[in-house]
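ok so i was messing around last nite and threw this chain in just to see what happens. nothing serious, just curious
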Amino acid sequence: MSSISPAPSPSGTLTAPRIALLVISAAAPLACVVGTIPLALALGGPSTTAMFIVVGCILALFTVGYAVMSRKIAEPGGFYPYITAAMGRILGCSAAWLALLGYTAASIAAAAVSGYYGNLVLEQQLGIDVPWFVYSLALLVVVGALATRQIDLGAKVVGIAVTCEFVVILIVGIAVVAREGIHGLPSEVFAPHVAFSTGFPIALMYALTCFIGFESGALYAPEARDPKRSVALATYAAVTVMTLLLAFMSWVFTGAYGINEVQGVAGQELGDLMFTLSTAYTSPWVTTLLAFMMLLSQFACMVTLTNAAARYIQALGAKRILPPALGAVHARFGSPVRAAILVVGVTLGALIVFGLALGLNPFTDITSVAFGIGALSIVTLQAAASLSAVLFFRRSPERHWWRTMVAPGLGAAGLIISIVLMVRDFDLVTGNPSTVVGLMPLLLVVATCGGALYGVYLRRTAPRSYANLKFVLPELSEPFLATSPDSPVPTGPNTGSDL
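result:
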């Protein structure tokens, strides 16, 4: 049924638009509009619109270096091959563990919040009271089935979902602008005293969390029709589309409620803000459609995050960094079947422990904390990947002042500032003031140090597995590890250097 392979097949089926849709769906744009933008407005005020533009620019700078690296490194596994190539295998192991923490936490958050909204929408719209856990379990079964099939099937499902999300969001946004005219998009939001008002650091944090998962295009490189171009194009497209959509909708909220009143209204309405706006400016059927689109948005997000986590695990299993059995791919579909089953199993186990055994609220406890950990982990990896582009090309004849130096350097600086803000105000990111929750960022330290120690362990006890932490330049036939301090690669059957 399956075979061990580092990648499903060199001849993939995914095009750049389909990868872009997978990437965008991980961010769950409708969920951001319904849930995150109101929080950003409530705590960060009218600076939110400008902060979406700022975050979009930071991530566009990140994407410049990321795109160049994606053309040079022909390895699945997202960030960790890039970081390994530039910083060595030990830090590569740290990046791999941090990525597993981030995407697993994000998958758990997506499953919990899907159950929460499923229970809410079905009860309000249809009068059916389905316990949140039952709804999450049903979705996990479907998501698991899709994750074990050819990725093209999941991409089609996600494409339909994302298209529907965009349509219903734009219906509401355009309706506001049509009625309010120029006042629906007040230019004052870009005035310095508004854009950088007191709450702008909080608005910046929330804006950044809306883009989590946009960098996941590299995970689908082995299944892309043209990996060298598709990943870069998909990532640029995802950043551009998400920035324009989210900035537009936060601008619309501000225009509809007033630049001086929007913060207070958002604080009162929170998750109902979008529905209140829809009721006031459109027909009741649009509001009903909006509610059901939330369920579709969360489902698409679950599909994408499960696929992303499974591909990290499969890539590490194929390299024998994790148990080789996890590197198995479906003989026909090329999907990471065992890794996908593991991700679904871990997610289900987390929901059973935290939701059923401990009785935690799926939204305020499980989703908020898991998403906060996932967001912080992935932003940290983004910053490391930006620095990797600078380090990787610093001695290369292909070094370019903008693409491999200035742009990724500025992107890394912006992301590092964001990390500091997120750690400092982690209680605001999660909406949970608990002391225990405030200490949760230490999990990133544990994962990073644990990965490094595991790398040292592999170097001493399993040099072949350790040597597998490498990347391949597309134009070369031999494995090559950039200018990493870890070279050379062990060549003997049972021996290895300090690599």
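not much to say yet. DSSP finds 20 helices and two strands in the chain.
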